[in-house]
Fold each of these.
Amino acid sequence: MPLEQSGKALGSEEPQSEDRPDITVCSTRTVGRALARIVGDQTMTNTSALAQAAPFSESERNAVYKAIYTRRDVRDQFLPDPVPDEVLLRLLDAAHHAPSVGFMQPWNFIVIRAPEDRERIWQAFSAANEEAAAMFSGERQSTYRSLKLEGIRKAPVNICVTCDRTRGGEVVLGRTHNSSMDLYSTVCAIQNLWLAARAEGIGMGWVSIFHDADLRDILAIPDRIEIVGYLCLGYVEQLYERPELEVKGWNRRTPLEEMIFDGKWQGDP
Ligand SMILES: Cc1cc2nc3c(=O)[nH]c(=O)nc-3n(C[C@H](O)[C@H](O)[C@H](O)COP(=O)(O)O)c2cc1C
């Protein structure tokens, strides 16, 4: 598959840190080689693997916040331009560098490009969306029906992100008392992907209006694997400045101060 073959392109552009020209953003393979040199025969627990961790320069910091604040969920602004494999691999590598409970890395990424597959998936969305619309009434239902809530056919690349809950064996460090931690880890991978996509000029939309069984059937996903996210990706020239659901009157951002509690729970009991 071309996506795997082009893996070598990943390390080809390695931006330097402005603060630390000695530090390079590396491909996994480069990091692996460097680490092997550092640790030699010793185990990975050796603290000699520590590196300096200075704050980012102002422009680097601004770039991180820019990605966070200007990231949007995209449904309709996708351009038809193909996303090159090496760019997609950069995004997936960013996702693969997310934190995970016990370093379990429970995710997989099913990349779906074929229009006929995306059409089948859109049909599944469409049926589920009709059911969803019926759950609202009156004006809320008309607003719901006016919203476009997916870009499955318009975005040239779709990715189904899954979580293999059996990957670390029965007992996983950190998941011993909360079994959901593997799912949360997978969501971290999706957020990494989302932010990296923004930096690449690629929009991403998360579609959750499906019957799980439909996606499972179309994508041949076994029962033991959890479906965490269905994502639509493609280049964009324009993004909403605020969440589209706010622009279209569905909801608005809650003030931050209502979200922060001091020392203990201060919300409704
Ligand atoms: C778990 C999750 C599921 C979502 N599912 C959908 C969806 O099915 N359809 C949709 O249009 N947006 C979906 N979204 C996007 C949200 O509507 C969006 O993040 C929110 O309105 C805020 O907008 P912003 O992401 O542009 O800041 C989902 C987001 C998350 C995190």
Amino acid sequence: MTTPENTPVAEKPHGFVTKGIHWLSLLLIGYGYLKGLNNVNQLSDPALFWFEVAFAAALGLLFAFRLFWTKKIAGATRLPDHAPRWEHFASRFVHYGLYASVFTIVGTGLAIAWGFAAPYLGRWFINPMIALHEVALTALPVLILAHVAGALWHKFIRRDGVLESMTGKLTM
Ligand code: HEM
Ligand code: HEM
């Protein structure tokens, strides 16, 4: 849809709950990457151990609520129905990939904590969890880059208001 001033606006922008969670999650994930651990021995500091567990649990619950909210209540995408099938596929693939990466980071993080606190689980448990943690930590930024590229595609090529549905009106 195009306004008289030629500014693209989505038919129905995302609501403030979806927007609030979306931009909060960007901050939390940025923080998580800045503060990421360097090795498993750091978990012997109890304060750091419990902070990591609380942070992972909070991020996991936020994303679980967000998935419920967008799938069941507010709607997951503002991509126009008439957009090409490949755009619908790419958008769904990247959105689910973002959720899958975050849930894997959180799940393997909690598993690493469990394996550290319960040494009887042994290296055979904790080592694959660390490997999977790192796979998901590598996949997430790749997907975020694809996601941002998609947002710019809609802003500058399609001009269909999909970016503005998450940011509000932009003057560019
Ligand atoms: C219970 C929660 C968590 C635990 C116990 C945990 C544990 C670990 C451990 C042991 C490492 C070092 C891996 C190695 O030895 O190479 C690591 C790396 C890392 N973690 Fe976590 N993690 C948790 C949650 C998270 C969360 C929620 C995030 C962020 C979204 C995160 C981000 C990172 C990053 C960025 C690295 C560095 C990876 C690298 O240098 O290649 N972690 N984590
Ligand atoms: C500068 C960075 C970002 C920009 C410009 C951006 C932009 C957008 C836009 C425009 C939408 C609406 C798409 C639509 O309606 O189809 C959206 C949705 C979405 N974004 Fe982002 N995003 C960014 C960062 C992130 C990050 C860091 C994550 C999570 C790891 C994320 C996860 C999602 C998800 C899952 C959706 C679908 C709606 C939902 O389930 O909440 N985004 N984003």
